[in-house]
Amino acid sequence: MPKTKDPYKIDRSFLTPPTQSLYQDHDIAISSADWIQDLLEDAVELDNQIEGDFDLNYLKFRIFSNEFAFVRTGLITFKIKVFKLYKNKAKSFKQFCEDHLHKTHWMVDKIIRAAKVVIDLIVAGFEVLPRNEGQCRALMAHCEGDLTLAWQQVLDDHEGMLYKITAKSIKRSLVGEEEEPKMETLVVTAMLYAAIWKAAQLQGMKPIEYLEELFLGKQNCDNFAQKIKQKRWEDDLENLTDSA
Prior knowledge:
It contains eleven helices and no strands. It is mainly alpha-helical. Among the domains are: 71-123, no CATH class; 131-176 and 213-226, no CATH class. The longest helix has 20 residues, at 224-243. The radius of gyration is 23 Å and the shape is globular. The chain starts with 33 loop residues before the first helix and ends with a helix.
């Protein structure tokens, strides 16, 4: 009689402990940065626990709490920006983001907006929420002004398959299927590509997204040139307030 496969049996050949390198001999000193030490303390604490030490409900809480760390980041950076808590560290919020957070200020602003999306949905009574900045951005871009109605539609379309929610599937739920565009290759100089890449990065876009906005425009987006002017105006205003 053939053996029945145990659904709970784990192929341990695929389970290399994430903490394995902590116990290997190495001559490189580990950073003493507070956030790194805090992370390593968590890693060692978990590594030292055995099966009977774990409470699955608490672990689920930790997973969800950590997954929404981007919301806390948005709430914190909003306060840093509004109260200019960076004044003793940097001349502007832009410089603080780049030098101290290692992110563009456009990316940080996106995280702040994403935090607002999640908080708004929580206040509207939702328990299932967008799980990263990209999902929040997709929802904002295609919700047509009604965030809660749009998110409910996304949840309805993914009923029983919430794990399949992605930024792309959110867009698909709200604007329908789009035919995949035909792709072609364009050869450009390294200098031109670098210029395109840098311009796209400043807008928080991929190069192809930047070029599409620049030459084609996109549905549900304002005129691209106007968006650039608006961002330049915001930069000028930020620089004025920073120097005030």
